[in-house]
Amino acid sequence: MTPQQLAGLLKKPELNDDDIVTLLGLTDPGLCGMLRDAAFARTTELLGPYVYYRGLIELSNICTANCRYCGIRKANHAVKRYTMTQEEIVEQAVWAARNGYGSVCLQSGERHDEKFIEFICSCLREIHEKTKGPLLPKGVGVTLSLGDQEEEVYRRWAEACGNPESLRYLARFETSNPKLFAMLHSTPGTNEKNLEHRFACLRSLRRCGYQVGSGVMIGIPGQTLEDLAHDIRTFQEIDVDMIGMGPYLRSEGNDLESLGQMEPRALLQLALNMIAVTRLVMGPVNIAAATALQAIRDDGREMGIEYGCNIVMPNLSPQRFRKGYQLYDNKPCLDDEPTHCASCLEKRIESRGRSVGWNMSGSSRHYLRRMGRPDEVKPAKDYTPDGKRLIRLRAI
Ligand code: SAH
User: Of the spans 63-67, 259-263, 305-309, 317-321, which averages the highest pLDDT?
Assistant: First the structure.
């Protein structure tokens, strides 16, 4: 493909399946740069200059599922299991709110027992009460990422959160290819996860009022460019509000180790191409720069921002828990504390021409439009609620 041909393709109002496959497969650095610039410009045009934080709280690594790719799957007995206390979880969320993060994400392994369900309700109620303040009158926004659940459970959590306008759920379908999905989830003798069921969960989430997020892993052994193009079409079909995607990385404790992983440079480029094409096709949805990008290259998440991401999820988990939550190998920042992550990240984001949307909940603009709601306005004040830290806000 010549630069002229690519420029023509990038100007098309709608990309067809062949175009998508072509763009995903770009490897020439000059052409990849053109794709990046088109996606970045489109993101600015649709969403302005802001990147929003979701403070990530990895509250427990106890899991009842056996997803073969995942380092904390149930059958990995080498992992020491932990669950943070309610006090520790709430403390992290309050820290996030005080430091200008408009929202947090609670993620964990998958559990379905009543004790866990009620524990989450209780955490959500307390987070809501303790994060309400002048800059966040409705409390911090919350994204949940707690796996497949019954609709009734999603409803209970939605009620407990107290801030339905900024309530989100992230459940990646991992791949839209049913054969690949089965390969990823079937350990001999069991087949716990089912692609159709995961889609049903996404529909339940929508009925319960969540902004619905999903996503895939990129570079799964056996996955083709056509599979990834079909994943994007599936995002359209589900009409997702948010997308979280990252490279598939091997993990010592997982059950796919023998299949290896793609060569890191090619894998990173494929993941970035996928982000850019998804932005071009999906318009004003939120797209998160996955931490897994940073596991391949130190500035991988910033590259994600250049290729069209507008969300970053700084890890808020206290350092002592981080080693227990290694979904894949080389997970970055294992030795850092949250305070370090916050300041380091702002510099990284600004270095790529974006600003942090301090004290903004950063709801998906796609979602706001669907609901007939106005775009979020940036707060007038430029101090965090505790007045300690000057937050720099810039006009759009
Ligand atoms: N248990 C919840 C949330 C935790 S897993 C759930 O299943 O939804 C969050 C995401 O981490 C998964 O959706 C998966 O896409 C990603 N992940 C897990 N193992 C991975 C690996 N080896 N490489 C890359 N991403 C991985």
Answer: 305-309
DSSP 340: H
Q: 69 C-alpha vs ligand 1 centroid, how far in Å? A: 8
What token pair was written down for 287?
Answer: 């797209």
| Stated length of the chain | 396
Decide which of 376 and 122 is more confident. 122
**Distance of alpha carbon 93 from alpha carbon 63, whole angstroms:** 22
- Amino acid 117: pLDDT: 98
Q: Of the residues 69, 73, 198, which should be mutated to test ligand 1's pocket, given the most ligand atoms within 8 Å of the CB?
A: 69
Q: Phi/psi at 390 (nearest 5 deg)?
A: -75, 125
Tokens of 106: 């609670």
CA-to-CA distance for 292 and 304, rounded, in angstroms? Answer: 11
Biggest CA pair distance of the chain = 60
The closest-lying atom of ligand 1 relative to the alpha carbon of residue 145 is 3
Ligand 1 midpoint to CA 171 (Å): 9
